[in-house]
Automatic annotation (TrEMBL):
It comes from Bradyrhizobium japonicum. SUPFAM superfamilies: Winged helix' DNA-binding domain. It holds the Pfam family RP-C. GO terms for biological process: regulation of DNA-templated transcription. This is Replication initiation protein RepC. Residues 13-143 form the Plasmid replication protein C N-terminal domain.
Length: 143
């Protein structure tokens, strides 16, 4: 689909070496690897204390996972979802926007998701003439 563009931090946060490292790990996944997204989510929930994320952050991750249509995730596909904050807040059971942004930052800091930012900061996908996504900006679920 695309070669990834550099990611910028959002808000007043600085870009750390850990953010860059998680981006590199996301691009190095083997293409033949297939995982079940809900089994991975359950494993993340089990490891929550070690990862240092809250239950609310996991509810945001759960909401993000619902935007990816496939249950089986492969290394061949780009795993970028691009919901608006409004859509994401609705799937996170009405979470306020400020709380949503805070928990997204926690997920990024934990290396569970990677931000793929567009030049204007919006989340969207550009499709080709056949209707296939050729360029997407949003949250990369591959880490």
């Amino acid at each position: 689909m695309q070669s990834h563009s550099p990611t910028t931090p959002f808000g007043r946060r600085s870009l750390t070496l850990a953010h860059v490292a998680s981006q590199m790990v996301a691009t190095e996944r083997p293409p033949e690897k297939i995982v079940h997204k809900w089994k991975i989510f359950h494993a993340i929930c089990t490891a929550r204390p070690r990862l240092g994320v809250s239950e609310r952050a996991l509810s945001v991750l759960n909401a993000l996972l619902t935007f990816h249509p496939e249950t089986a995730l492969t290394g061949e596909d780009d795993l970028i979802v691009f919901p608006s904050n409004h859509q994401l807040a609705r799937r996170a059971h009405g979470m306020p926007a400020s709380t949503l942004r805070r928990h997204l930052a926690v997920l990024v800091d934990a290396g569970l998701i990677v931000r793929r930012d567009s030049p204007n900061g919006k989340r969207y996908a550009r499709k080709d003439d056949a209707g296939e996504i050729e360029l997407a900006f949003g949250f990369d679920l591959s880490p």
